[in-house]
Amino acid sequence: MALVRNELTWGATRQALPVPARDVREWTVEVESEPVDGLLLGLALSRFAHDAAQRAPEAAPEATLESGRFGLTLTIVARSADEAAREGERVFAGALETALWPHSAAKTQYQVCVASEPISTAA
Question: Is there a smaller number of Cβ atoms within 10 Å at the N or the C end of the chain?
Fold first, then answer.
C-alpha cells in the first residue's frame, strides 16, 4: 500500500500537465466593467493596462477606458470557452483591483464575452 499526498511545500511550484496541442484553441475574450466614477480614471487606466500586461503577457491584453468603463481584450489559449472566460475574468478582476486601489473594485460589475468560435487552432 502506498500513501500519496497531493500537497505543495512552501515555495514549491507545480507545472500543469501538458495539454495536447489539438485540444487547445485561441479564444478572444472581452471584458467590460460598468461605468466607474472617479476623478483620476486616466491614471487608473495606465495602472490597469500595466497590471493586465504583467498578469498575462502571453495573452496580449489591450486595455481601454471609454465612458468610464474599463475594457480588456485578450487572446487566451484554452480548451474551452468557459476556461478562456475564467482566465480572462481572473486577469481583468486583478487588474481592476490594482487600478482602483484603495477604492473597492469588488463592487464594480463587469461582463465577460468570449468569441463563439475559436479564432484558430493552436499548433
Answer: N
What would the pLDDT profile of 83-111 be if each residue is shown by its tens digit?
A: 999 999 999 999 999 998 877 666 788 99
Place of cell 478572444: 28
Tell me which residue of 116, 111, 112, 122 sits closest to 81, measured CA to CA.
116
Q: Where are the alpha helices (DSSP H) in 1-40?
A: none
Nine-digit cell at 53? Answer: 500586461
Residue linked to cell 502571453: 58
3-state secondary structure labels for all residues of 1-14: CCCCCCCCCCCCCC
Q: How many Cα atoms are found within 13 Å in the side-chain-facing hemisphere of 110? A: 29
Is the CB of residue 115 less than 8 Å from the CB of residue 13?
no
CATH-assigned architecture of domain 22-121: 2-Layer Sandwich (3.30)
Q: How far apart are CA 105 and CA 51, in angstroms?
A: 14
